[in-house]
Amino acid sequence: MPSTPTASLERRLGPLDAAAIVVSNVIGGGIFFVPPIVAQLVPGAAPALGVWLLGGLLALAGAMAYAELAALRPRAGAEYVYLREAYGPMAAFLTGWTSFVAGFSGAIAASAIGLAEYLGRFLPAAADATPLLTLPLPGIALVVSRRSLVALAAIAALCLVHVRGLGPGRLVQNTLAGLKVSGLVVFVALGLSIGHAGASSVPAPTLADASLLSGVLMALIPVMFTYSGWNAAAYVAEEIRDPGRNVPIALALGTSVVIVIYLALNYLYISTLGVAGLAATEGSLIDRVAERLFAANAGDIVGLFTVVSIAASISAMTFAGPRVYYAMAQDGLFPPAAARIHARFRTPAVAIVAQSIWSGVLVMSGTLVQLVSYTGFALVLFSGVAVAGLFVLRWRQPNAVRPFSAWGYPLAPALFVVAAAAMLINEVTSRPGPALAGAAIILAGLPIYFYYSRRNRT
To answer: Is pLDDT above 80 for 182?
Structure first.
């Protein structure tokens, strides 16, 4: 493919384009299976809704910290750039390595499989996991099935869209994000106005006590995972017009939209099922709510919407992730081809294709679920460390021109860092196996870092 390492990325994205990336990245499958977990951990409706509000405010605090960092260093790559500036190239490389191995690629693969599963509701063959072909490789076997072929087709299609430039990529992304948001708004509005809810009112909150506090703290962990992706606009800061102004707008707007939608959905869930019914829900939550509110076949309509929603998430991650590898390659810490910009389309085409290929490998591997589970630890770790980098850079560069200052500094970013630390401690103490596996995936990047580091010195 024609490309050049000297061309630059284009600044064509406006604040609404970048906000659409945030919304698409955040609103994925989590909001359709995490609410029952929260309802099991807290004793009433008000605390349950309060956890979602608290999680949203923490996400907003993190987003505003990223907004200051992105305005200060409006480059592609987000955490990679901020960790490089605050802590040095090794920490930066490890966050980029984790993003490639599982952070973005694993999430894309998992979402693509989920898309195939939902399509199976209408085309049963699309969800058929029966092996058609097995490709034995050293240490792993890749299994080709009808389900994996559908997932691979979705990944390939969105890869092609984003390789072909910001014009097609922005059009597809904004369309999918618009359909996602409008579908959720219509669902909530109809559910609250004409739906036949099983619980006519939200139950009154219970009295606060030690068990309530413990439940809220435990519920906050899956809630924060559901909000992950609030930083998505920062990855494409190099392609946003007037980033000092527009990146903060995009992060604030996108995160705020998500908070409102999440609170509205949870209110609808509780109004329809009650807290006890929500806690007891198994399987597809949104299907059960839709059928309870409207009719027995309403779940089919919701299924179509879910396919669009998942496609929007895949598109956003296909857009954002490669900017990290592009930045790494520019620093000599990733294969040089990833730094090339397509001569015609002005996109990091090689980085986009590389991520999509690895996502496809993960689709066909039998390790996807474990890999995604293990790297949840890493994602929380690096976002917390990146926000902590705001304090480091304020101290090291007190006179630097900052087009935007994080809202609520220093309290808001400090609370985010404390929350991230609490989640990490809880993960290590309650699930040491996955946490250690996540740490092992991070540390597995060290030999590769030292290889590139030595090569850069020669």
So the answer is: yes
What distance, in Å, lies between the first and last C-alpha atoms of the chain?
29
DSSP code at position 342: E
Identify the pLDDT of residue 195: 60
* Whole-number Å distance between alpha carbons of 391 and 49: 31
Contact 442, 94 (CB under 8 A): yes
pLDDT of residue 424: 85
Tens of pLDDT, residue by residue over 412-444, are 999 999 988 987 887 788 778 878 888 888 999
Residue among 361, 365, 355, 308 nearest 334 (CA):
355
Q: Within 164-241, where are the H helices?
A: 166-193, 210-226, 232-235
Return the CATH architecture of domain 3-457.
Up-down Bundle (1.20)
Strands (E), 247-361: 341-342
Give the model confidence (pLDDT) of 340-382 as tens digits. 999 899 999 999 999 999 999 999 986 666 666 667 778 888 9
Q: Sketch the domain layout of the chain as residue ranges.
A: 3-457
Say which amino acid occupies 346. R
Q: What number of residues does the chain have?
A: 458
Q: Which of 416, 70, 105 is nearest to 236 (CA)?
A: 70
Model pTM above 0.85: yes
Q: Could you tell me which residues come within 8 angstroms of residue 431 by beta carbon, excluding any fewer than 6 positions away?
A: none
CA–CA dist 309, 299 (Å, integer): 15
| DSSP label of 28 | S
User: In the numeric block, which tokens belong to residue 264?
Assistant: 């509205």
Whole-number Å distance between alpha carbons of 99 and 94: 9
Separation between Cα atoms, residue 306 and residue 180, nearest integer Å? 8
In whole angstroms, what is the distance from residue 454 CA to residue 458 CA? 7
